[in-house]
């Protein structure tokens, strides 16, 4: 399951805002794996993968009909996930994390994405992708903080270039 989450993290890191159905599907896959793990509704790894893929597919299909709502909901889940799991993935103190802080960050991410659109989505998807990769990938002598920073910069640059060059030329 860790390998799948690293792959999902890389996809979100690179093309998170460009293909909204892929971003929402990846976040839905992540949410499905968290729900299955926390509620212990599956017994085997293959059942968890099937449940997570079903959640991801459902999220990707719903974005076709409810685009703005699903992107905002995915930003909400992403913000909460980043706030809750990033400090532990970087080896920082996590005593300050409680449900109020996670909810505030999640709501802030959702509101920023709803109001401002693309730029917060680029930042959130880069942070989420870098968090997933840092959290589930064994990083050797580089260090998790250094790897996270490099991945964030890489994700921001790639998505910014994709966003910039996908605009129609008006000249």
Describe this entry's structure for a reader:
This protein is mainly alpha-helical and 171 residues long. It has one domain. 80% of the residues lie in helices and 0% in strands. The longest helix is centred in the middle third of the chain and has 23 residues. The protein is globular.
Quaternary organisation of the protein chains: single chain
Q: State mean pLDDT (0 to 100 scale).
A: 87
Strand coverage percent: under 5%
Structural class: mainly alpha
Radius of gyration: 16 Å
Which regions are unreliable across 5 or more consecutive residues at pLDDT < 50?
none
**Percent in helix:** over 70%
N-C termini distance: 48 Å
Order of helices and strands: HHHHHHH
Shape descriptor reads globular
Tell me the number of structural domains. Answer: 1
Number of E-state strands: 0
Sheet having the most strands: none
Number of helices: 7
Q: What's the helix and strand layout?
A:
Blueprint: H1 2-15, H2 20-39, H3 45-65, H4 67-89, H5 99-116, H6 118-136, H7 144-165
Question: Which features does this protein show?
Answer:
171 residues, mainly alpha
In short:
This protein has about 170 residues and is an all-alpha fold. The protein has one domain (about 1-165).
